[in-house]
Amino acid sequence: MSGTIPAQKAEALIRRYFQACNDADHQGLVDCFTEDAVHYFPPGLPGAPWRSATAIADGWVWCVKNMESRWTIEKVLASQDGIEAVIEWTHWKTAIGEVLRGDEWYIFNDDITKIREIRAYYASPVNKADSVNRLHDFDYEARGYALQPPSPAPKID
């Protein structure tokens, strides 16, 4: 990515990370993170925060295997220096018929080749009674947000 501006490097790394999530690519996920990376979540997720590149990869591969998880990136905003970024995402848990939307704040290493930290914020508290968790009265369709998962989840043995 020589010649790429830092904000573009940050966005490309986030997109590579999400592709690795959707592919349940354990090594691809590990490769996106510093060894000591941390992924923080709102209260309630067992085992959170996930500490280490391997723990993060294990978590997302588990989600694909057990919930047929799929993810879409809705919006990306990266700082000019590329050291931080924020995104909006959708997590499609297709096996259990649940959809979760939220934001994440990213911090990258100095050369923007690895993710050091992710802080996740959900659009709303997870309500198991709702199959789609979303902001009240926000028109996702009119704003161009994904309304379906990007593809079927891969089968994992």
TrEMBL record:
Pfam families: SnoaL_2
Domain SnoaL-like stretches: 14-111
Domain of life: Bacteria
InterPro entries found in the cross-reference section: NTF2-like_dom_sf, SnoaL-like
Protein name per its UniProtKB record: Nuclear transport factor 2 family protein
